[in-house]
Specification:
This protein folds into 3 domains: 72 residues, Dna Ligase, domain 1 (2-Layer Sandwich), CATH 3.30.1490.20; 124 residues, D-amino Acid Aminotransferase, Chain A, domain 1, CATH 3.30.470; 147 residues, Succinyl-CoA synthetase domains (Rossmann fold), CATH 3.40.50.261. The protein starts with a helix and ends in a 9-residue tail after the last helix. The radius of gyration is 26 Å and the shape is elongated. The longest helix has 17 residues. Strand 10 and strand 11 form a beta hairpin. 36% of the residues lie in helices and 24% in strands. The chain contains 12 helices and 18 strands. The structure holds guanosine-5'-diphosphate and manganese (II) ion (MN). The site of guanosine-5'-diphosphate (GDP) has 15 residues, from strand 2 and strand 10.
């Protein structure tokens, strides 16, 4: 679960990381009132779950009420790479002497937490990593020992932080590590971590992702999900307890088992198609569950054809077929379906589908065959006789 900048900063503050205080607002009037109260100059920042807001014009300094009003009006409603700005964060503008970079994440291949630090902050860190890898310090942490102040000092020194802020950077790094660890974050990143002319080290930006599976341990964080910016179908799926991720193609995908769904996405892509979603129907095969899944698939207007990929193990293909027939009787989908049934009772399942003669439903035996059929159907081409 990704947090907005200001929510990340609130977590930072709880763990003693220095941030500027500010206020989240949703209207121009509230933005102006907040700016007047905070005192000028202020910075007005778009709160969206995407980076590069500055470059896109979503971060602006305002010297007075009039500028605050102008910028707030311009940024609210702005579309930043497909993310519409509905919330602004107003904070007192900082003077910047230097922009550093700091992050903590889990390095899965090393099986250890990884702290990264660079004095080349404020810019695209991937670029720094590529062009001047020696300027990005990578420090693995022994999870049992944690990150000590001394470790922080060593990282700051290695990275070439100014001598008078080594301690301040070390404090920021250890606090960031605490955020990452105690909040069950998968990523905690600050870009830029600034040094002010008064030589204070402060987080000017925050990018925090929390582990959704650990949210039950953090009742305070449960309310942080950005539900108003969340995709409405994904939100509905979450409420219904279905694993659904929206993608940007036009072929609806459903399978039983996350691994099978992943490979279905691959096979469809290989056949030249673009999946519209990931949907794992899990082990269930009753009509109600299938109807719920079909409803979700078809809630996405972009879907032109659907691939149902079922591998029967414990799930019996004949039951799935019965579920589909019952579900179709109610839903009557208007887009073509390809149904691949393989495994336990697949012959019986395909026979049932054939008997039911559902309009616009095509049976397939193999995954590749199914993928080719659905790609053709999505492109408006005819395929062999329907089931
Ligand atoms: P991002 O573009 O989405 O990463 O948003 P950031 O929060 O990192 O802001 C982008 C840039 O705006 C920063 O790198 C700074 O250069 C600038 N900026 C943000 N806040 C302030 C501020 O308080 N004072 C000054 N002078 N510049 C700021
Ligand atoms: Mn940034």
């Amino acid at each position: 679960m990704d947090l907005l900048e200001y929510q990340g900063k609130q977590l930072f503050a709880r763990h003693g990381l220095k941030v500027s205080s500010g206020k989240p607002v949703k209207t121009v009037e509230d933005a102006v009132a907040a700016a007047d109260e905070i005192g000028y100059p202020v910075v007005i920042k778009a709160q969206v779950l995407i980076g590069g807001r500055g470059k896109a014009g979503g971060v602006k300094l305002a010297a007075d009420t009039q500028e605050a009003r102008e910028h707030a009006a311009n940024i609210l409603g702005m579309d930043i790479k497909g993310h519409v700005v509905r919330t602004l964060w107003i904070e007192h503008a900082s003077d910047i002497a230097a922009e550093y970079y700091a992050s903590v994440l889990l390095d899965r291949s090393a099986k250890q937490p990884l702290v990264m630090f660079s004095v080349e902050g404020g810019v695209d860190i991937e670029e720094v990593a590529e062009r001047t890898p020696e300027k990005l310090i990578r420090h693995h942490v022994d999870a049992l020992q944690g990150l000590s102040h001394e470790d922080g000092v060593e990282i700051a020194r290695k990275g070439g932080a100014d001598a008078d802020v080594i301690d301040g950077v070390a404090d920021a790094l250890t606090a960031l590590y605490e955020v990452w660890l105690q909040e069950d974050a998968t990523l905690a990143e600050i870009n830029p971590l600034i040094v002010t002319p008064e030589r204070e080290v402060r987080a000017l930006d925050a990018k925090v992702s929390l582990d959704g599976n650990a949210l039950y341990r953090h009742p305070d964080s449960q309310g942080l999900s950005d539900s108003e910016n969340e995709d409405p179908i994904e939100r509905r799926a979450k409420q219904e307890g279905v694993q659904y991720v929206k993608l940007d193609g036009d072929i609806g995908i459903l399978g039983n088992g996350a691994g099978l769904v992943m490979s279905t996405l691959d096979v469809v892509a290989q056949a030249g198609g673009r999946p519209a979603n990931f949907l794992d129907a899990g082990g269930g095969s009753d009509a109600e569950k299938i109807k719920q899944a079909v409803d979700l698939l078809l809630a996405n207007d972009a879907v032109k054809a659907v691939l149902f990929n079922i591998f029967g193990g414990i799930t019996r293909c004949d039951e799935v077929a019965r579920g589909l027939i019952a579900a179709f009787a109610e839903i009557k989908p208007s887009v073509p379906f390809v149904v691949r049934l393989d495994g336990t009772n697949d012959v019986e399942g395909r026979r049932l589908l054939q008997e039911a003669a559902l309009p616009n439903v095509h049976a397939a035996k193999t995954m590749n065959e199914a993928a080719e059929m659905v790609v053709a159907l999505a492109a408006g081409q005819p395929v062999g006789a329907g089931a």
